[in-house]
Structures are given as structure tokens and as C-alpha cells.
Amino acid sequence: MSATAKSIVIIGGGASGVLLAAHLLRSDDPDLRVTLIERQGQFGQGLAYSARLRHHRVNVPARGMSAFADDPEHFWRWLQRREPGKHTSGFVFVPRRMYGAYLEDVLREAGERQPGRLLVMSEEVLSLNESRTGVETILGNGTSLASRWAALAVGHETQPARSRGIAVRSGSERDTPLDPDAPVMILGSGLSMVDAWVSLAEARHRGPITVVSRNGLLPTGHKDLKPIQIDAADVPFGTSLTYLTRWFRALVAETEAQGGDWRSVVDGLRPYNQRLWQSWPMREKRQFLRHLRPWWNVHRHRLPPDLHDGLVRAVHKGQVSLIAAEFVGIERVGDAVRATLRPRGTRRHETMDIARVYDCGGVSVDIRASGNPLLQHLVRTGAARADAMHIGLDIDQNCALVASDGAVSERVRAVGPLTRGRFFEIEAVPDIRLQCQQLANSILSTVTGSPAQR
Amino acid sequence: MLTKKGKYGLKALAALSRVPQGQLVGIAELAQANAIPKKFLDAILAELRNAGFVRSRKGKLGGYCLARTPDEIMIGHVVRVLDGPLAPIPCASRTRYQPCDDCDVQTCQVRHLMLDVRNAIAEVLDKTSLLQMAALGGTEALQETLSA
Questions:
Q1: Band of residue A453 on the pLDDT scale cut at 50, 70, 90
Q2: CA distance linking residue A150 with residue A17, whole number of Å
Q3: What confidence category does residue B136 fall into, taking pLDDT thresholds of 50, 70 and 90?
Q4: Which residue from A minimizes the CA distance to B79?
Q5: B81 touches chain A (CB under 8 A)
Q6: CATH topology of domain A3-157+365-447
Q7: Secondary structure element (H or E) that encloses residue B14, with its range
Q8: Does B20 reside within a domain?
Q9: Residues in chain A within 8 Å Cβ distance of B77
Q10: DSSP letters along B48-102, please?
Q11: pLDDT over 80 at A250, yes or no
């Protein structure tokens, strides 16, 4: 076999791309070739772990952040080498850029195992052409790469802020310094909202902050607890959401009656979240996204406890106010902006004048509206399509891309948050590393005849 | 173990899966055709409705039908709803376990084995849809008829 017969191009050098490369390079095959392409030129620093967010921290305790599911202490050991004696337990929430640095080290070590097998490139990918013999990856510099496999790891993507550019993404170029006493508004109730609040707090913002979301919820905080033990045989897969919710609440009540905590139930269920999602027909999936997701998110995606306490204090002090309302629109009024809201359960419109609106409506979900040229090309040519729920890319059970005519790609795979239509719970490192491990093993067993070695 | 309730429920679902889509089956008819006590079937179908597997309409022309296509209904999912978390003995469940009088939960080897057994049961039942189960019965019934 020639070298290119064992080659894979990974598009996207954020957490998902780095984790996939690292799992592939565990193989001992000297002919394996992995090319990792990232347009920003910084590896391991995708949207989640970029150095741009100086003060922001990972929302998962360090003990859960290893790059390798079968070596759960890997990150913890790295952290102790990096900051000797600083941390006494794995229940610590490190700065995100530190996690980005860890991923860079993971990638470097993976490349050094056998020099010459990993190539990293800082380029934009414009398109992919799949043929019977391989995949051609067209780069922004006019050249192209030939490989046997390609993997899309383009991850989270922020869309331009809503309302014709009047709203601003926190931390973007347009997020210029503000008058510290000016009133501002944040749209969204998830972890991105908290990121925007952290940025404002770090800039010693004193003005009132109004947080607007459909339900007016706040993310909950972590506690240092063990998950309860749940077996697959215990979980009511495939039932209606009312049935599942009743089961879940009863289990929480039972756990709390024994001195436990709801968090242990949420975390105990975690290994089954993908199976639960997959066990539902379309109707239940749609209902979940529409009605249950906001509540699920605030309990499942939690904050470091001190950050949560700080946010709750800011709410109690009155600097942060939470409003349950639908965001209708904004317009410019002189130097300020005027936001129109429809408070929950009413039909009346209310307006509010603020200096700036931060759009923290979360990460992009509809790939048909993607700003990524590669995704645009794949959708336009019919090589890829949105999943049935329109929350990511359509893929089969082996993460192979599904074309607009339903044909399953032989050579192109997808990993990470883009695959959430099939897996739903595929946003965080503990799930993505497992996906990368399985995908690497399936690719390697085809390419080299044996799965990755440790 | 599969109780009478679980078995009756599966039989009723299998019967409903053979009815053309959009058509309702009256509860008396369903009970009689499958030799299930009507009152018991009432209770079973109410639970299956709460869990989202069947739909009902009241009144003279009312009755039950599947709320999903038979390939979307997994046997394991139905059995959990009717019989609980697939426990071969009452103590062999993590979330709904009932302790036995005679042994210690942590050290009882029988319980540990039965926990494995029920996960194996789940493996099989969660991969089998109502459609597949109906096909099983179909071939068996067919073979019986042929050999008779």
C-alpha cells in the first residue's frame, strides 16, 4: 500500500479535531498519515478553548477532562505537572485557555510518537470532492490534498449576531469598551450568557444588566458529588416525555430522601443521554427541543460553584435582572439601542433602551445557514444535508456523512457538536473523546487492519 | 420476569400493530380476541397510553391504536413501563430495588448475577421492535399451520 492509502485529512483543529488526531496517532502503523487543517492557525483552541477568553473557565471539573476515556487521569496528571502543588483535588475548574494549551500538548505528543506522520496546516478548506478512490480537499490557497479519508471536525460555530448587526457577540471585535455605568442587555440563559456576564464583571461593569430568555432561567452550579449508579435496564427509554419526566422526578425525590442530590441523578443518567435521544421518535425529539431543553440545559450544563454564587449574588444585589420574554427585535436610537420584548405569557410588547445588546443565543445549529465555506459547499452540492431536526449534519451510526439523496459516504466522517442530530449529548469532551476513539478505531481497522494501540 | 401484565400488554400491542393505520380497535374486541380479561386490559392500555405507546379515543366509535409505527416501539421499552426495570428478582434493580429480608445488598452474589442477567435481557429486548416480534409470531404461527 502506498502512503496515501493510509491517509486522513481532518478539517477543524479545535477540541474535536485534536482529539480525533490524537486517537488516530495511537496506532503503531508507520505509514499512517494524519493532516490536521485549521483556518485560525491555533490548534486545540476552537470556539470553546480559545485564548481570546482570558478569564473564562472550563465548566467541567478537571477530573472529567482527560483527552482519553481509557486514561481518565491524563489531564489531571498534566495539570499537576503544569501547576505543581496548586490543586488538591480534581474538582477544580481551570481556565479555558489552559485546557487549550493541554490540547496543544496532546497533539504535539501524538505527533512525536512517530515523527512524520502528523502534518498540521493553517489554511481554510473550501470544498471536498469524494471519488471512488479517495477524497480531494480543496484549500483556500488554491492547492489541494488527496487522502483516503476525511473527517469534518468543524465544531461549534457562532453565527453573526441577530438584528442586522445591532446586537454584538461578547468578545468579538465589535465588543468595544463600554461606559461602565451603561445599561446593557444579554440575550440567552445558557453558558454563553454567563461568559458575557464574566466579561462584563472582569471589565468592572457597574451598570444594570438585563438578561432576557424565554424562561428567565439561570444555569445551576456544580457540587463535588458522585453520580448515582444507573443501569440501562433502569432507564425508561422510548417513552413519552411526560412519562420520562415523572420517572426522573421520582428518582430525584427518592435520591434526595436518602440524603442525595439531584445533580447525582442528572450525572448518573449521563451515560444514557445519547441512547435516550435515539430511543425517541421524531415527535418526542421535537417536543424535547421545544419544551424540555431549556430546563434540561440549566441542570445538565452547570457552572463552577464560585462562578454560580457570584452570578446569584449579582441577581440578589439587583445588578443582574432576569426577564422571561421573547426577543422581538432591536433598533438604533441615537447612540443607544431600543430592544422590543414580549414578556412571557403576554401579548404586549415592551421596549427597553440600553447601550448594547449581547447576543448569547448559543451556537449555530442550522448548517444551511452556516458561514463556513466548506459546509456551504457540501450542502450546496448535495454531498451533505441537515439532520431531520435541523440541529446539525445528517450522519449514519458510524458518523459517515449522509448526502441529500440519502447515500452514505464511504470516506467522509463527522465528529463533535455537528453530529448532535444523531447523538444530542455530544457537546463536551467526555462524549467527544469517546466518539473520537470509536471513529479512530473504525477507520484504523479499515486502513491498517488493526485498531489503535495505546 | 415477565408478568402476566407485561405479556398481555405485548400481545395487545402486537394485535394493534396488525390493524391498518388510522383504524381503532375497541377494548372489548381486543380483550376477547387475545383472551385477556377486559378490566386488566383497561389498566394495561392506560399505562401504555401514559407512556406514549398507544392512543385512544373515547365514545361509541372509540378504541385504541398505536401512537407510533411498530418499528418505533421497542419491546424492552414497553416491558419497563409495564413490569418495571427488567429485574428478574425484586432486589436486582439499581433505581427501584426492593431489598430481600435474607441477605446483604452489597455481598449477595445472587443479586450481582441477576443484575448482569437483567442487563442482558435489556440488550435483547431493546434491540427488538414490535414489528420484529410480530414477525417472529408470524413465522411460528405459519409453521404450526403448515405442520398441522
A1: low
A2: 11
A3: confident
A4: A236
A5: yes
A6: FAD/NAD(P)-binding domain (3.50.50)
A7: helix B4-17
A8: yes
A9: 236-239, 279
A10: HHHTTSEEEE-STT-EEEESS-GGG-BHHHHHHHHHSS--SSTT--SSS----SS
A11: yes
